[in-house]
């Protein structure tokens, strides 16, 4: 096991650390928070994780709606800890929420981390103390406030954790059961024989709709924006396949980190990393042949077929035709199929993986309502009323309306940096970071899987592991400097913000209003929320900054002024 040089006879690296309650406080006990606790404990740091939920798990605790499951293969969507990754046996190719939550609890117990996590405790405010060069925190538990101090603060609050609840007139007048996909009751909800309405057809909505349709009396889907879906082809985990992956984990992990895109290299139970090949110049038949193979293999792998499919308008148009044909083949009613075919280019919104989603609309008890053409006027006591006067009676109304992605979690906390500057003021025109890790004016504050990181375009467990190791290296560099304070320059975050924007700008993504562009939240600045240049490029940028002796960072208590890398 690697030992970091910041260990000094069992004490943390900074002499002044004993004046703080902790060296590091981590907010959030999802994949990022668990990783930070494990690795920073190994480095000899005094770490405490605070989690608002009554369980570890992050998004896999909160998102327990019917049908919730991951759409990266289970064997890849796991923590890259060599000492335990072979010991967990997945039951499905794409794990369900209960199994993912069980896995995360198993990891916490196996690594003996539970004593370092305080549950049902929410960070309400954090203020940087320039004199002490650390953070003063106020946390709430059971209605009582507690105060702690820490040298470093890590927000592992997740890219998708703050619910987006649209302002629909009359919502509080509904006398039936109202639910949001991110706050499903732990005890579940009996939907059998009920009239259920679902608003939203992104990933969560797709999973809910296809799962509950067979059991409800009537399902009304209120579709705002159709999405391009592809089949997961989920199955019980083949034992021989799982053993092969376990036997080759080192090689597979190396490929995941070296590959562009999401980091997924397993397709159809075989190793098939993304290739740097273009579709431009290929015939329609050649393009279709590759896409058909991926469609039959299952999983959201169509975007990894050709590197220009998201940039080249003609190649993308062929993918549109391919997917449109699939929808028409799967949906019996031509008018319903027409409504289900999106207007935006494929892959410019997050493409959901589905299990018979399109076929669900062939059921006699399922009705598709286009609320772009006939918007919701208001919610009434017994259902939903549209502008046209159409009245849809409901017993249960489900909002599958997603999240305030990227910046939402951080901005939900009162965070104040140098001179009392609030994070909401600093990010008034959109999130601004260096590498998605830090933001200027907020020293010793780090983000894991946060805004402007590759968080939604790369596997979160793998990204979190890299970022935690990178932060530990930064802290070692601080030890060498003798100054326990680190910030980033305004120039470096401006440079990174431009890099993130330029990558999206070279694609068709900005043509679509999506949460990738922050366009799902009224009043939120419309700009890219994540780095989409692939993990190898992200790692290269990070190493360039570090190899330049933290160029772009500011070590010590001075005002940020260092030039970028």
SSE layout:
Layout: E1 22-27, H1 31-42, E2 47-50, H2 59-62, H3 97-110, E3 117-118, E4 122-129, E5 134-141, E6 144-155, E7 177-180, E8 195-199, H4 203-212, E9 218-223, E10 230-231, H5 239-247, H6 249-258, E11 266-267, E12 270-271, H7 284-297, H8 313-330, H9 334-340, E13 353-354, H10 357-360, E14 366-370, E15 376-380, E16 383-386, E17 391-393, E18 396-399, H11 408-411, E19 414-416, H12 423-426, E20 445-447, H13 460-481, E21 486-488, H14 490-505, H15 535-547, E22 553-555
Parallel strand pairs: 1-2, 1-6, 2-3, 4-19, 6-20, 7-18, 8-9, 8-18, 9-14, 10-13
Antiparallel strand pairs: 4-5, 5-6, 11-12, 15-16, 16-17, 21-22
Helix pairs in contact: 1-13, 7-8
Description of the molecule:
It is a single chain. With 565 residues, this protein is of the alpha/beta class. Helix content is 28%, strand content 17%. The chain has 15 helices and 22 strands. The strands form 6 sheets. Strands 1, 2, 3, 4, 5, 6, 19 and 20 form an 8-stranded mixed beta sheet that branches. A hairpin with a 2-residue loop joins strand 11 (266-267) and strand 12. The protein is globular. Mean pLDDT is 92; it is low at 1-16 and 559-565.
